[in-house]
Design brief:
single chain; 395 residues; alpha/beta; Aspartate Aminotransferase, domain 1; Aspartate Aminotransferase, domain 2; seven-stranded mixed β-sheet; four-stranded antiparallel β-sheet; 15 helices; 44% helix
């Protein structure tokens, strides 16, 4: 019982700092209008940016995939779990990224977290390598850098000049710059053109985690590289397929030799059971939508919702962060204040999460509002009214 008492003390400390997290149970499909813990809610917390998670075409493709390939893969990719569905998806994703990468090949993995671990541990497997990591990178990139044998140098958020000094001073045999494209808690974009120019000048790799850009950014929804019009053999691209694509998993796209290195050396890929082939099959339907007229319409509607929310909010003490993406954070400040506002919204049937340290810096607890193409203008107006009123009455 002494062991349990020690755990309970740690849990008590989290509660005292207003850092306790709470699981909520969704009783219905991922959508803006959900039943959560048995209660109807209007959700502004999903990363389902295009509203494809419950799209009938994608759901039917998942059913068809399960009927054709079964419920599971049965083994890791390199044993017997690599199905035709996986292979076809990887071929298509490689084709998607062909305008931006030299001799591209793609690799499908179970999650974005796993994909980032795979890239950084394989590239940083040698002690004479150096990883240059953006200060606001996602936890999966931070953990991948920690697990690698390479050294790690963190550069300040968005500070290209600081990164240039670090690259110039480094004598590492392999240099790896890694960054989010869209920062998940701030919603702003990394200066990818400037970062790529630095990497090409210093002979470094640029690993881009486009978790919140794939499907949303770019004329055809192909992500941050399309948005900025980038192309280079120095690029290693990671896109998640459980956010805007609405299903699950992630992919890495790069030069074919890079992908072969991952197949041979990336432990998170080699030593795990492959994702169910049905997911890969369903993702073909997601890509059809993203690339087609409906995808363009959904991206345009999402952009209009972002503009509406930013125009409708009239905040004095709270701070709406500078973001033109679907991620619209409202910084409250103290942990307990952010929790109080989230609870007040919840009472009104609005589901908006309070994000606190260590996910964000101390003193910057916030509401992480995320918009979806499945939201309506009336729903966004309802959220804006609620936030404006809550700030007026805040102590």
């Amino acid at each position: 019982m002494d062991l349990i008492a020690g755990i309970d003390r740690k849990l008590g400390q989290l509660a005292e700092q207003s850092l306790t997290r709470k699981l909520r149970v969704a009783d219905s499909a991922c959508a803006p209008r959900q039943v959560v813990d048995g209660r109807p809610m209007l959700a502004f917390c999903s990363n389902d940016y295009l509203g494809l998670a419950a799209h009938p075409q994608v759901v039917e493709a998942l059913r068809e995939g399960a009927s054709r390939y079964g419920a599971g893969s049965g083994a890791s990719h390199l044993v017997s779990g690599h199905s035709r569905a996986h292979a076809l998806l990887e071929e298509r994703l490689a084709g998607w990224m062909a305008p931006h990468l030299e001799q591209p090949r793609a690799l499908y993995l179970c999650t974005g977290y796993m994909a980032n671990l795979a890239v950084l541990t394989a590239f940083g497997a040698d002690a004479d390598a150096m990883i240059f990591s953006e200060a606001l990178n996602h936890a999966s990139l931070i953990d991948g850098a920690r697990l690698a044998k390479a050294g790690v140098s963190v550069y300040p958020h968005g500070e290209v000049a600081a990164l240039e000094r670090q690259l110039a001073d480094s004598r590492a045999a392999t240099k790896i710059v890694v960054t989010d494209s869209v920062f998940s808690m701030d919603g702003n974009l990394a200066p990818l053109p400037e970062l790529l120019a630095l990497c090409e000048r210093h002979g470094a790799w640029l690993v881009v985690d486009d978790a919140h850009g794939f499907g949303v950014l770019g004329e055809n929804g192909r992500g941050a590289l399309e948005h900025f019009g980038l192309r280079s053999p120095n690029l290693v691209y990671m896109g998640t397929l459980g956010k805007a694509a609405g299903v699950g998993g992630a992919f890495i796209a790069a030069h074919a030799s890079v992908i072969e290195l991952l197949v041979q050396r990336a432990r998170p890929y080699i030593y795990t059971t492959a994702a169910p082939p049905a997911l890969a099959h369903a993702l073909q339907a997601s890509l059809d939508i993203i690339a087609g007229p409906e995808g363009a319409e959904r991206r345009a509607h999402l952009g209009a919702l972002v503009a509406q929310l930013r125009d409708a909010l009239r905040l004095r003490d709270w701070r709406l962060m500078a973001s033109n993406t679907a991620i619209q954070p409202v910084v409250i400040g103290a942990n307990e204040d952010a929790l109080r506002v989230a609870a007040a919204l919840h009472e009104q049937g609005l589901w908006v999460p309070a994000i606190r340290p260590p996910t964000v810096a101390p003193g910057t607890a916030r509401l992480r509002v995320t918009l979806s193409a499945a939201h309506t203008f009336d729903e966004v107006a309802r959220l804006a009214r609620a936030l404006n009123e809550l700030e007026k009455t805040a102590p």
